[in-house]
Amino acid sequence: MFTEYMIKWDLLPDGEPIRTHSSRLLPVRRHGVPAMLKVAQDPEERFGAQLMAW
After folding, report:
1. What is the pTM of this model?
2. By three-state DSSP, how is residue 8 classified?
3. I need a surface site. Which of 1, 8, 26, 54 has the fewest CB within 10 A?
């Protein structure tokens, strides 16, 4: 689930995956900087991501 984004954005895992009712989260690092990768599962959450990208 995370692999495509890990490759695309040059991310390294930095912890265990977290599952919520609407998303999957993974602590990551990008160029040494901590971040959180979020992959939305809920349709409303996905729509919000599309809106931010636009």
Report:
1. 0.80
2. helix
3. 54
